[in-house]
Amino acid sequence: MENQTSQQNTEKRKRVFSAIKPTGNPTLGNYLGAMKYWGKMHEEFDCLFAVADLHAITVAIEPKELRENSKRLFALLVAVGIDPADNVLFLQSHVPAHAELSWLLNNYTMFGEASRMTQFKDKSKKAPENINVGLFDYPVLMAADILLYQADIVPVGDDQMQHVELCRTIANRFNNKFSPTFTVPEGRVPKFGARIYSLSDPTAKMGKSDGANDGSVFILDKPDDIMRKFKRAVTDSGREIKAADDKPGITNLLTIYAAASGATLEQAQNEFASSDYATFKQRVGEAAVETLRPVREKYEALRRDDGELLRLMQAGAEKAARLAYRTLEKVYKKIGFVRL
Ligand code: TRP
To answer: Hey, where are the domains in the chain?
Structure first.
C-alpha cells in the first residue's frame, strides 16, 4: 500500500542529477554551502548523485589519489545524509554509458561551442603543459551525465552554469535533428547554503586544496585541527563583531556560526554583541566541530569495511545503469546504429 502511493508520487516527481569531482578534500564550505542540503532533496525529488571520477583525470592526478579520493567522497556523501536507500549514489566510471554517450554527443557539439567554455580557458592557463583533449571535452561528458538520466534539475555552483547551458544546447540540437529524446535540463544555483571563505584570506573561497596555510577546514578534520584553524582565523581591524563589507573576516566567521548552529546572521551577531574576538573565534570553532562531528563519525564507520563500501557502490551503479541504458539505447537507434 505504502509502496503504491510512493510509486504514484515518483511518477510526477522531478528528477535531480548532480555530481562532484573526487579532487581535493571536501571542506566545511562544501558542506555548509551544498552537501548538507543534498541529503534532504530526495523528500521532494528523485535524486541521483555521482562521484565524477572520469572528470577527475582531466587534470593531473596520481592513481593512489584518484582511488582514495573516490572512496572518500562516496563514503562522505553517504555520511552527509545521501542515504543509498533513498537516492541513486554511484561512481561515474561504474556506469560505462557515461563514456559511451559522451562519445556520441561529441558529434553534435561544435568545436566553437566547446572552445568558448571559460573553465577550459582558465584551466588551460593554469596548466599550459597539460591542455589535453579530455579537458576540452569535459563539458560534453558532463552533458552525457545529465542527459542519460533525463534530469529536470541540475544543482550546480555558478561556475558550472555555462556547462549546463551547453548541455541544453546539445540536447535541443539532438532533439531537433532526430526527435524528442532528452529532457532539456534546468541548471540551478541553490539559493540556500552559505558562501564560506578561507579562514586565512576571507576574500577567497575556502578551497579544497588550501591545507597548507590553515585557511580551509576539511569535513574530516579532527576537532583539535579545527579549533587550531579557527583560533588562527584572520579577523578585521576594530573589535566589533558585526557583519559588514569592510569586515570580511568577521562576516565569514558569523556566517559559519549561523550556518553551523542553524541561527540567522542577525541572531549570531546579537549573541556575540559583547564578546571579544578570541572568545568569538573559540565559539565558532566549537560550533564547526559539533556540526562536523556526526559526519566524521559516520564516515569513519563506513571506511572500516571496504567490502561494504564496494557493495554500496555496486548497488548504486546497478540502479543508475538501468536508467542510463534506457536512454543510451534510444540514442543509438535514433542515430542509425545497428543494435543486436
Ligand atoms: N563539473 C562539475 C563540477 O566541477 C561536476 C560534475 C560532473 C557535474 N558532471 C556533472 C555537475 C553533471 C552537475 C551535473 O562541479
So the answer is: 2-193+306-335, 223-301
